[in-house]
């Protein structure tokens, strides 16, 4: 099996990158007036402008040749048809089946999983309506007013990010809260104002073994039983979403109250399943379906559009271009829409847990940089924090700017200011300003030469910093579904190009295992510990303070 870096297209790109490192986007724009038309893609829910990258038509041709040599289309077919492309866990990867709104049959080991998905959706619908309409009663006969979703990682970030993003679409039926951290401060703060008679807990965990989630779930259970004096209250107040039914039942959750997850749904791709139950409870089931429809729209685009016009493919190729070939080490996600304030946190898991790896799917060490670290913050806030670095540091950080034509909460005068900045920033990052211009501008304001000599070098912006702009019409369940699916497929294509298994996460295991051992030692302070001197020193310091108190 060939190593990616020995592919013909890869080697051409390496040579091409040497040329392109000498190019400035200003020159590329002045040479080609059609750049925006050539390098943008319009989808029903958004416009993607990728013209502000250090690319030419030749770059795109070579990147597409790479995608072809890596058989992106073949892998896409393997994913959608349920082949076990999660090779290290020997699983299919079928989150797309969860939003297959055309309901085309899909057989996995003889079972039509479209039927299973539809019946899970029907169960979600009935449950959502019962709770939202107040027919589902707590142990004392009162209607549910608050939902507390307990989960972490993929069992939290997706639903919470979507709930936050779609707040304007929620009515007053229910208040939805999230608890993910094992730091007791979070659950204590969430529970403090709530009335146990009116709270519904959703314990979301694919494995139903995750320490943090189980710890929070046990605390919630104690809180409920302490208030109700009744173990049977659990049946009215606890729901589980899991692929491990036995563990949920052993925990004490009624079988009826368990929503199924399948092993072919990866945690970080699971918000489309019953893991999205808090979203449906918050918005109503119809809007949850709209979210699925938006994602399905992108699934169809991803499957049908030619690679040259395929937004997730292009985004993935650009990321490989910027990071692997041009050497960028991080990438910023910069939403200019308050509703997307959790998007970069969500994208960190989506991309870094998927592709933050350094062996190929054959288990061989890769000899090229893989994915960048992902970080970011809301538009305007970031401008007053780290944009200095984006504009003038000697590290180039490619950035995705995501904005909306219309605000979901129009307040007069605000949106235009926001969007003026949105457009200005990508322009400034691209064009920069050279010393000659800086000097001319300072002169025009009447500054003396001595001052100009001193300040001019500090005001130079080299520009040439790559950005993609994603302009949505408006954030809605449908457009948000499309945006998330766009990135999911981008991550998939990136994994294929880099020859990485995007669907496992072995890198989180080592720390988890050591934490379990250390936890036992913290519980039994007398037991002698034998770690490295740093870890021993830290644990001793911690325990000495505790035992002195
Ligand atoms: O952080 C590791 C991880 O396994 C994630 O991949 C997953 O989303 C999260 O933990 C939660 O896992 P579970 O849903 O099994 O509780």
Task: Tell me what portion of residues adopts beta-strand conformation.
Answer: 5-15%
User: What ligands are attached or bound here?
Assistant: 6-O-phosphono-beta-D-fructofuranose
Radius of gyration: 26 Å
Strand order of the largest sheet: 1-2-13-12-10-11
Please tally the β strands and state the result: 13
Number of domains: 4
> CATH-wise, what's the superfamily of the largest domain?
Glucose-6-phosphate isomerase like protein, domain 1
**Regions with pLDDT < 50 over 5+ consecutive residues?**
none
Just give the CATH class of the largest domain: Alpha Beta
Chart the SSEs and their pairings.
Blueprint: H1 8-20, H2 25-31, H3 35-38, E1 40-42, E2 46-49, H4 57-69, H5 72-80, E3 107-108, E4 111-112, H6 113-132, E5 146-150, H7 157-165, E6 175-179, H8 184-191, E7 199-204, H9 211-228, H10 234-237, E8 238-242, H11 245-251, E9 258-260, H12 277-283, H13 285-304, H14 311-325, E10 330-336, H15 343-355, E11 373-376, H16 379-383, H17 387-392, E12 399-404, H18 414-431, H19 435-444, H20 449-459, E13 467-472, H21 477-498, H22 509-523, H23 533-548
Parallel strand pairs: 5-6, 5-7, 7-8, 8-9, 10-11, 10-12, 12-13
Antiparallel strand pairs: 1-2, 2-13, 3-4
The protein binds 6-O-phosphono-beta-D-fructofuranose.
């Amino acid at each position: 099996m060939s190593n990616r870096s020995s592919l013909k297209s890869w080697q051409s790109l390496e040579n091409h990158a040497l040329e392109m490192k000498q190019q400035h986007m200003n020159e590329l724009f002045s040479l080609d007036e059609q750049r925006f038309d050539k390098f943008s893609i319009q989808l029903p829910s958004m416009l993607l402008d990728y013209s502000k990258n250090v690319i030419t038509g030749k770059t795109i041709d070579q990147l597409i040749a790479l995608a072809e040599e890596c058989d992106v289309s073949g892998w896409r077919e393997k994913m959608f048809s349920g082949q076990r492309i999660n090779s290290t866990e020997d699983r299919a990867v079928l989150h797309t089946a969860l939003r297959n709104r055309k309901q085309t049959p899909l057989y996995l080991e003889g079972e039509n999983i479209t039927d299973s998905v539809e019946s899970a959706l029907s169960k979600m619908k009935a449950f959502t309506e019962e709770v939202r309409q107040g027919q589902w009663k707590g142990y004392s006969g009162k209607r549910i007013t608050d939902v507390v979703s307990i989960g972490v990682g993929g069992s939290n970030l997706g639903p919470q990010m979507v709930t936050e993003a779609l707040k304007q679409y929620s009515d007053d039926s229910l208040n939805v809260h999230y608890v993910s951290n094992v730091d007791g401060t979070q659950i204590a703060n969430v529970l403090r104002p709530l009335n146990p008679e009116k709270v519904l807990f959703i314990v979301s965990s694919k494995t139903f073994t995750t320490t943090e989630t189980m710890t929070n779930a046990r605390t919630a259970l104690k809180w409920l039983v302490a208030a109700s004096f009744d173990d049977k209250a659990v049946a009215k107040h606890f729901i589980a979403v899991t692929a491990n039914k036995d563990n949920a039942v052993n925990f004490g959750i009624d079988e009826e109250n368990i929503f199924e997850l399948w092993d072919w749904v990866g945690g970080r791709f699971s918000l489309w399943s019953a893991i999205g139950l808090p979203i449906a409870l918050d918005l109503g089931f119809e809007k949850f379906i709209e979210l699925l429809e938006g994602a399905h729209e992108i699934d169809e685009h991803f499957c049908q559009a030619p690679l040259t016009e395929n937004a997730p493919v292009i985004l993935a190729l650009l990321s490989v271009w910027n990071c692997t070939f041009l050497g960028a080490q991080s990438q910023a996600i910069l939403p200019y829409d308050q509703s997307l304030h959790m998007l970069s946190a969500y994208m960190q898991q989506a991309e870094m847990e998927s592709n933050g790896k350094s062996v190929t799917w054959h288990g061989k060490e890769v000899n090229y940089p893989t994915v960048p670290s992902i970080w970011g913050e809301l538009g305007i806030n970031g401008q007053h924090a780290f944009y200095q670095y984006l504009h003038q540091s000697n590290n180039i950080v490619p950035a995705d700017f995501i904005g909306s034509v219309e605000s979901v909460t129009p307040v007069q005068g605000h949106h235009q200011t926001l969007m003026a900045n949105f457009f200005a920033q990508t322009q400034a990052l691209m064009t920069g300003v050279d010393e000659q211009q800086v000097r001319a501008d300072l002169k025009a304001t009447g500054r003396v030469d001595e001052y100009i000599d001193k300040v001019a070098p500090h005001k130079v912006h080299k520009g040439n910093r790559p950005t993609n702009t994603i302009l949505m019409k408006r954030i809605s369940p449908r457009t948000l579904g499309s945006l998330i699916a766009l990135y999911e497929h981008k991550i998939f294509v990136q994994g294929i190009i880099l020859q990485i298994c995007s669907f496992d996460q072995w890198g989180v295991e080592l720390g988890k295992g050591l934490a379990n051992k250390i936890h036992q030692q913290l519980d039994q302070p007398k037991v002698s510990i034998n770690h490295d001197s740093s870890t021993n020193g830290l644990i001793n310091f911690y325990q000495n303070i505790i035992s002195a108190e």
